[in-house]
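pls design
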C-alpha cells in the first residue's frame, strides 16, 4: 500500500469524515491500533499490540546452559507467547538443543545462534507455521504486522544500536521480534517499527524507518513471518 497523497491512505474509506484513528484499508479490525506520539514528538498511528507483546521480554542469556547468542530463540519465544504458548527462554533453548535447532559450541558464549530456517522449524514444532521471506521494502513488513502476523527480522546489530563494535561486515547478525508499525496519521507513510530486542533487553522499543531500512533491508531484508494470524480478544 502506497499512500497517494496527504490525508489519503488509498481511497477505500467510506464517504464522510475519516475515522478517529485512520488506518490503511487492509488492516484487520482485530489488530490493536491507536493514535500515539513518537519519542521525537511526531503524531503517529501505532498498529500492533506493542504493550501486550512487551510482557516477558528480558536480556538474552537467561537459560541454564549459559548460551548467550539466543536472540533468535528469544524472538521465537516472543512469537510463541504472542500465539498463546507461555514459554520462557529456557524452554525454547532446551527444545532447540534437543532438536538441532540452534548452534551448540564448546563455548556457551558462542552457542544458541539460529538461522531463519531453524526459527521456522522451531515455530512449526509448536504448531505455528511460518516461512522465510526476503523483503524489499518497509511496506512489506508493515503489511505483515497489520495483518496480525508474527514477525522476526534479521538485522545488523551495529546499525541497530549505533555501535560500530557490533557492525562486523554489515551482515544480519541479530534477530528481533517486530511487534508494531508506526504510520503518519495524514500520509500513511511508515515512520518506523516497534521491536522487542533481547540483545539490549528493550521491549516495545521504537526504531525509526531510516534505521530499520539500514539495519535490516540493507543487510538482506530477511524475515520470518507466521502463516497464521493472531486472534486478539
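designed seq:
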Amino acid at each position: 500500500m502506497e499512500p497517494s497523497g496527504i490525508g489519503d491512505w488509498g481511497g477505500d474509506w467510506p464517504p464522510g469524515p475519516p475515522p478517529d484513528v485512520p488506518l490503511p484499508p487492509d488492516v484487520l479490525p482485530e489488530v490493536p491500533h491507536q493514535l500515539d506520539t513518537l519519542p521525537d514528538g511526531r503524531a503517529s498511528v501505532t498498529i500492533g499490540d506493542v504493550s501486550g507483546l512487551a510482557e516477558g521480554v528480558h536480556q538474552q542469556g537467561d537459560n541454564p546452559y549459559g548460551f548467550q547468542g539466543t536472540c533468535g530463540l528469544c524472538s521465537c519465544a516472543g512469537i510463541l507467547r504472542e500465539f498463546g504458548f507461555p514459554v520462557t527462554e529456557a524452554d525454547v533453548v532446551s527444545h532447540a538443543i534437543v532438536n538441532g535447532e540452534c548452534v551448540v559450541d564448546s563455548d556457551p558464549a558462542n552457542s544458541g545462534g539460529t538461522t531463519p530456517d531453524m526459527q521456522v522449524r522451531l515455530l512449526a514444532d509448536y504448531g505455528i507455521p511460518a516461512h522465510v521471506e526476503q523483503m524489499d521494502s518497509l511496506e512489506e513488513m508493515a503489511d505483515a504486522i497489520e495483518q496480525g502476523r508474527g514477525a522476526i527480522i534479521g538485522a545488523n546489530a551495529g546499525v541497530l544500536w549505533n555501535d560500530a563494535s557490533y557492525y562486523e561486515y554489515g551482515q544480519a547478525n541479530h534477530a528481533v521480534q517486530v511487534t508494531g508499525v508506526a504510520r503518519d496519521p495524514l500520509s500513511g507513510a511508515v515512520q518506523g517499527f516497534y521491536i522487542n530486542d533481547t540483545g539490549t533487553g528493550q521491549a516495545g522499543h521504537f526504531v525509526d524507518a531510516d534505521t530499520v531500512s539500514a539495519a535490516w533491508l540493507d543487510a538482506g531484508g530477511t524475515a520470518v513471518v507466521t502463516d497464521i494470524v493472531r486472534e486478539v480478544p
